[in-house]
Amino acid sequence: MSQAAVSLVLGDKWRGRVSETTAERVREAARRLDYRPNLAARNLRLGRTRTVLLVVPALTTEFFAGVYTGAARVAADHGFGVVLYPSPEGIGPARDPFASARAALDGVLASSMAADALTAIRGDQLPLVMLDSDPHGSLGAATVNLDIADGTRQVADHLLALGHRHFLHVAADIPSWTFDVRARELATRLRAVPGTTLRTAGTPMTIEGALAAAETALDTPGPRPTAVVCDDDKLAAGVYKALRRRGLRVPDDVSVTGVDDIALATALDPELTTIRLDAERFGEHGMHALLAVLDGRTPDQGDIPVELVVRGSTAAPSPF
Amino acid sequence: MSQAAVSLVLGDKWRGRVSETTAERVREAARRLDYRPNLAARNLRLGRTRTVLLVVPALTTEFFAGVYTGAARVAADHGFGVVLYPSPEGIGPARDPFASARAALDGVLASSMAADALTAIRGDQLPLVMLDSDPHGSLGAATVNLDIADGTRQVADHLLALGHRHFLHVAADIPSWTFDVRARELATRLRAVPGTTLRTAGTPMTIEGALAAAETALDTPGPRPTAVVCDDDKLAAGVYKALRRRGLRVPDDVSVTGVDDIALATALDPELTTIRLDAERFGEHGMHALLAVLDGRTPDQGDIPVELVVRGSTAAPSPF
DNA sequence: ACGGTCTAGTTATACGTAAAACCTGACGTA
DNA sequence: TACGTCAGGTTTTACGTATAACTAGACCGT
Questions:
Q1: Closest Cα in chain B, distance from residue A87 (Å)
Q2: Which residue of A has its CA nearest to B85?
Q3: CA atom of B27 to C1′ atom of D19, Å
Q4: What pLDDT digit, counting tens, does each position of A170-202 carry?
Q5: Each residue of B123-161: pLDDT tens digit?
Q6: DSSP code per residue over B30-96
Q7: Domains (ranges, CATH) in chain B?
C-alpha cells in the first residue's frame, strides 16, 4: 500500500491499476485515520486550484446574495470553491485583497455592474465570464444575460395597456450595460405610442437617493407622471416615500414598478409590481458557463427569461 | 540572485541577509516579469493557508452580508482570505462543499444561528470563534457578542415608558442563544411591571411567516397587544401586513419594533423603531478575535453595544 | 600570518500530491 | 522451455516555496 496507490484510489483513478481488495484497504484506512488529502499540495502539483472568483458590486444586496448562492451551489457540485471579491469600498491599488491570491484562481465570474473592480483584477489573463454584459463584448469574454430587455418591454406594455402616458424613469446611476438597455428599451417602447412623455431621474441605488431624485423629478414643471418605472425594488421604496410626502397614493394617483422581486417588494404597501429576476438561476448559469470555459467547451447561449409580477402598485391612472 | 534570495526579499525577511543592492535588483526583476509567488506552494511549505471560513445561516440577509463585509475587510488587512460556508439548504453529509477544503482552512468564524452547520464542520479541531454564542460556551470557543440583552431592555423600557402593557413577541423559530436571550430578557423586564401581559408567537424568519404568526396571535382571545416586539426587521414587515389586514394602524393602534435596522426598516411606512446592530463591526470584532486566537493571543472581551433607534412605529397606546 | 567573526550570498531540503516510469510474478502461447 | 503480456503494485520525480545549513570572502585583532 504505497503512497501512489493511495493517491490513485482516493483520486478515483484506480480502475485497472489497483485491485478491488487494496482499494478497499485504502478506503478503510483513510476512514479510520480521518485522512484528508492536502489541498495545497494537490493545487501545487496540478497547477490548478479549483477556485473561482465572483466579482459583485456589493454583497449587501439580496439579488447578488442570490447570485452567489446559485453560483456556489453549482461550483460545489463540480468540486469548485467560490471566493468573493469584497465590496468595492475596499478596492484600490493600495489594498487589493487579491493582490497575491489572484495567482491562486482558475477563473473569474464577474457582474457587469462591477466594471471598475474588474479592471483592477483583469491584469492577468484568467478565464472570464461576464454576468449581464454586452453580448458584443468588448472584453472578448463569454457572457450570460438576463433578458432584461424583454422584462422592460413587459413593464412598458403593462403600464401602457393600463392607460398610462406620462412616465418617470428612476434610473440607477451606475454605468452598466444592464441599465443602458433598460433606459433604451423603455424609451423606444414608449416612443412608439403617440402622446407619451418620459422623464428620467438618475440616483445612486439607495432608498434615500431614490427619494430625493423622485422628489426633484415630481417638482419639475410639465405633465405629472402617472407611472414611475424604477430600475430596482429598493429604488421603488424610495419612490413610495416621495409620493407619500407629496400626498400621492399608490396606485390610485401614481403607479410604481420595480425590478428584482426581493423580499422588500412584498413588504411594501401596496405590494410592488416588479420584474422578477431569478438571481440564483442567474448565478447557476454563470457558473455553468465559466466551468464550460475552463473545460475548453463553448458555454450555452441564450438569455435567461424574466417575468413580470403584477401586484397592487399598478393600476389605471385616475382620469384627471 | 538565487531563488532563496528572491524568497527572502519578497517575503520581506532580508534585513541583514541580503544587500540593499541585490534586494532592489530582485524587486525590479519581479516587477518586470510581473512575478507572483505561487500560493499553493507557499501554503504547502508553511502548512497554513491564511484562509478562514465564515459560517452564516444564510447570506440572503443584509445583516450577515454586513458581517461578511466587516470580517473580510479585517481579514484582508492581515493578509487573510475569507471563504463562506454556503447557505444551509446545501448542507448535508452527502454534499458538504467543504468535505476536503476543510483541510485548507486556518480557522472558523461561525454564527450561533448556524449551529447545525457547525456540527457538520466541527469534525476537525480548527480554531473557532463564535459570533453571538453562549459566553459560558459549551464549545469551549471564544465568543464575540452583540449586547442584545441591553438592546432588548431598551426596547422594553421604551414601550413601557410609552404606557404599553400588553405585548406580543414575534419570535424567530431558530434555536440560538441570541433569540433565547431576547425572549428571556423581554419576559423578565416586563414581569417587573405589574399588570403586563406577554404573548409569544414563533415563526420562521420570513415576511410571510411573521404575517401568519401575527394573524394567529391577534385572533387569540385575551387582551389585544398594543405593542409587538419582533426579533428582526423582516418579521416586523410581516406584522405590518397582518395589522393592516386587521384594520389596525401603526402606531396609532399598535406599536411595532424590530431588530437589525436594515434598509427595510426605513422603507416601511411608518419607519420602524428598531434596535440597530452594527453588522460590519460585529464581523470586524469577530475576525479580530479569530486572528488573535490564531496568533496565540487572548481575544478582547466585551460586548458590542447596540442602539435603540426610535422612529414612527412606536407611540403611546390609544387610551381604550 | 592566522583564527575568528561578519556579511552576503548559495545550496539543499522538506512540504504532500499526481502521475510517469519502472518492477515483478503469473499466465498464456508457440 | 522461452518469451511476451498483463495485472497489480512500487519508486521516483516535479510542482514552487521557506528556511536551515553551508560557503566564500573581507576584515580585524593579536
A1: 7
A2: A72
A3: 20
A4: 999 988 889 999 999 999 999 999 999 999 999
A5: 557 888 999 876 555 566 789 999 999 999 999 999 999
A6: HHHHT----HHHHHHHHT--SEEEEE-S-SSSHHHHHHHHHHHHHHHHTT-EEEEEPPGGG-SGGG-
A7: 3-37 (no CATH), 49-146+280-294 (3.40.50.2300), 148-278 (3.40.50.2300)
